[in-house]
Amino acid sequence: MNPNANTVSVADAAEFCALVTEELGVALTPQDLDRPLDDFPEWDSVYLLRLVTVVESVTGRRIPVADLIEAATFRQMHEAAVRA
Amino acid sequence: MTLRAHMTTTEHDHAPPPSAPAPGSDAAGPPRTGGDGIGDHRGGDALAALRAAYAAGRLEAEYDTVRTLLARLPERQLAAAGQLLARLDRSLVRSRHPATPTLAVRITGQSTVGPLVAPLTAQLARHGILLAPVVSPYGSCLHDLLAPRAAAPDAPGLTLCLLDAHTVFEEVPSPWRVADVEAAVRSRLELLGRAVRTHQEGDGGPLVLNTVPLLRDHTHQLVDLRSRAALGAVWREFNTGLLALAQHHPGLVVIDLDPLIAQGIPAYEPRTAVYAKARLGDRLLAAYAREAGHLARARLGKTRKCLVLDLDGTLWGGVLGDDGPDGIEIGSGLRGEAYAEFQRTLKQLSSQGVLLAVSSKNDADNVLRALREHPAMPLREGDFIQINANWRPKHDNLRDIADSANLGLDGFVFVDDSSFERGLVQERLPEVAVVAVDEEPALHTPALLADGWFDVTDLTEEDRERTARYRTEAKRRELREDAPSYQEYLNGLDIEASLSPPTPSELTRVAQLTLRTNQFHLATERLRADDVQRLCARPGHRVLAVRARDRFGDHGLVGVVFLRRDGAVLRIDNYVLSCRVFSRGIESACLTAVLEHARATGARSVLARYLPSPRNAAFAGFYTDHGFASEGAGHADDDACFFRHGLHTLPPPPAHIRLHADFEQEHQP
Predict the structure, then answer these.
(1) What's the pTM value of the predicted model, to 2 decimals?
(2) A10 interaction partners in chain B (CB closer than 8 Å)
(3) CATH homologous superfamily for B3-299?
(4) What is the ipTM of this complex?
């Protein structure tokens, strides 16, 4: 399980935002979920894979990485993570 | 192997495998059966405190608390802390905390190297160092090494060049045979060798490479076992070649990743490797960052020097006061063997210059009897520079040991099995590194070695003699206490000193003095052996080594004066003297010799440079005390102050020192 936070699920969008903010240091609020990723210039594939690692440690399930890479917004990433 | 099988053993599992120690400061070391309740609790608080300060935008202003918070953080939480610290506004941290040392580090490699930034930020922050990273684009390591000046006009403080299996396999065709890998290994080694040479000769600064793990995903593409064995041999040839490069280049360090992987850390994560081209796993990068952090610390002159140990439960099992010297567990029996093994590790460290001392709540006579008379005790009284067995608080004892040895507490590491004692020392003396051991003595050694607190790039003969020298110092102290006055003590020491250029074999020691000395280091500048060699050879420059001995023994090479002729002015660019020998007039005798030399060779004045540092303030008045006049700053040089001596009346040389000064360069290589 994720050792660093109290989060135990990412089903909820707010929890997903908290996870991104705490584990990746990228400040994300539910209002940002539908903004294009281009609005986050620091966001790159390395962050994305760190997100995969963290979400997997929370949910215990494997994330389809390619789906996340193709996501254009954090909401789409969240949906892919929840689907898994 | 299925992807799923990978995942169960790779990065999503942050917790260390049961067999591997999980390094970290307070929560350092091995998995604990009962868990360190206090440490864990405070660790959670520490990450929460970091996050709260960051969220409130206060972390830059409160950066001075970061080091203490990180010391309480368990290893597994450092990654999250690093992500956060890497996003701080560095210029704001520097303006709020100007004394914080910053290290510019170029991070380059054969793959995507960005993931190293966060763990390296966290590791340097543990040592109070602010990381200023310059991250090279994907795969630019050869370019960066071959054109160091183009990559960065100012050489960075450190260049980390991350190598991985792709370094070799990008040259291997598909499908492949072992002979193809062998050819790639040869050509890559040749190319890397050339790149390292170019980088080092081009003054690119200190450089770090690493050995490359052989992946099962490569070996098992070969179905016949004979070929697999051949691939293994060829691969080791590559790593042996990399390690050998470090023997030829004093500015190169090669970090061996094998021991890190042997702790149970996966070498890579297949998806990160494929999708992000980041071919070394997160946890391996974290372990690498830990090694690099200690290297950076050594590079900035912050190497730890003294290891203070508790006794009961740390050096032996049982309670000496209750069980008596014959009843403690050491040497024989299962646990006794384990404690003996730990003591032998300490003896090994001590043989390389790490000073050992004791702080124990015990009766002093009992302790001495155990150390002198116990038949199976690997460490003896003579292995310690000081034994403080008493009932005073341990932080007072650490201060006392630091005062006697004339060392700063930031050079101390403290080991204790009691979380109470550790917590108290950590709270009272945050500059001391605290290592936790517990009731399982077989885990003491991995807990201590989890961090390379005493790492140096090179060891000198001086290091091997260090404990003996500090013990001789105790005899000098006795003479001082018996002497009617300090001058009579100095007269009784019968000091002999010499001042002349270093021999080639002394260059490493000269560099080491610049790296380790913090107090009498008048214009603090850290140099490597090849820097010193270059300075010696530069026209107009003169490097002079100070050596000293007295009736108690030879101090060896204890100081360096850096001179530079600038027309009619002789400049003292820097002056370093080991803390072992100051206040004995040696610094004055050598300065007088420099002034006499200046006058004899037609100089009109001597201009000395003093650069304030957090640790050298005690010597801010050194030059004015010797008849120099302050010229203030304003020589287009950072915060440096300048002092001029007109050479009309020279200070008298101290009468109690016989100095042999020879400024000629005949010892030059």
Answers:
(1) 0.79
(2) none
(3) SGNH hydrolase (3.40.50.1110)
(4) 0.78
